[in-house]
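Sample intake sheet
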Amino acid sequence: MTPQGYVALVLHAHLPFVRHPEHEEFLEEDWLYEAITETYLPLLWVLEGWLRDGVDYRMTMSLTPPLCAMLRDPLLQERYLRHISRLIELAEKEVDRTRWDTALNAVAQFYRQRFHDARHWFDAVYHRDLVGAFRKFQETGRLEIITCAATHGFLPLLEAQPNAVRGQILTARDHYMECFGRAPMGIWLPECAYTPSLEPFLHEAGLRWFILDTHGLMFGDPAPRFGVYAPVFTPTGLAAFARDTDCSRQVWSAEVGYPGDPDYRDFYRDIGFDLDYDYIRPYIHPDGIRCFTGIKYHRVTGRTPYKEVYRRDRAIEKAAVHAGHFMAERCRQIERLAKLMGRPALVVAPYDAELFGHWWFEGPEFLDFFVRKSVYDQGVYRLITPTEYLRAHPTQQLSQPTASSWGNKGYWEVWLDGSNAWIYPHLHAAAERMAELVRHHNRPDALTQRALRQAARELLLAQSSDWAFIMKTGTTVPYAVKRTKDHLGRFNRLYEQIRARQIDEAWLATIEWRDNIFPNINPQYFG
């Protein structure tokens, strides 16, 4: 039976490259460890269940180069095992501490088992290789993994130096091939930020399609006949898929979205902040800074400081209800669209992967229920990947999308305002200097080649959109400022040394050890 339409689930898995071998413990490295425990392993468990049960699903994920580099790094893998083992120890203490409170003790026992499972799967089942675990599912033909820019640089704000954009995209393409043994077909543009000037570099990388925000397609020229419910081909031949606003609102919205339900786990109430300092101190930062542990005993409850105890069974039941509702809404939406369009509609539902599990603890279970219900409980639509859709529907309207992002107000202001605008003249100057170095060193000796590679790494790391985003949102601003200045400072020192032919090999080796992303980077991409 021919479906009336399709749904393309797309998850964007990304974290900034945070690796500090110079410190025994580093607070911001916890971003990775929390995401492994709460998002990446739970998503893999969901994929394992679909594989075991023969579920004929389709899903798309980006795994960005910084995330893949961290997940493959032996130092961070070892530190994650230390992190999860410490959480197991804390959970054991919590089971004992809460033994007289039946409700709290049930949650404590849940966490103890959860952490044991995480360590077992990470170490004994996946042998610390989560990138390889995701690759296994891509090779089944049901999960499509796509790429992103090398360090999630905000590409429209780098286009003043086109070589910077080229370096971001081609380096990412190469890294993807190292990780997954094939060329990527699609790309998640960082922050869904698009301008037409990016397309020549997407073509050079052999990419076929990209995702952009709703208004980027709706304000295209000419206006798309089918709105965002079919891709368009740009004048250069790339396919552009746009985000569906209904799907976003139901999952993302703080007011009407599912994650705000009273039965779901509350993200902010964590024992790292709630419990006695002397008790919790061995499990927070060595400097004594209170931080999230991942053990959270309360549910959302409502807009009240009094939070009721989390009930895992009720939360999972609610995830099933919400998944059924989401499925029903997609059926109604696609039936309506099919009648209006006279052809099958495509609904693209892109989300940050870290929403599922980290921010919305029950998100992986919601996905599990939604996909199973989509496969078995309805016949209106079929799950699909963008690449599969293009194979089945190779003829689409020609239109030129407009500049856009999925940030606040739809353009650049999150990444370009009074808090972070100071970085861009420095990034542009560094990119221009990188091009100069490449032009003047066509056949570098071995040491100069190492220095050129490291200069490219430092440039890419300085360009990460995460630093500008953090400066804007005000979370860990000193860290974001320091990372930007450190990478630019190291780049400029390398630039001066290469030009003077006086490379400090000992210092170079130190920063190669510290900033070890992209070991096979090609500096010529930046020329």
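Comment: The longest strand covers residues 5-13. The CA atoms of residues 353 and 479 lie 24 Å apart.
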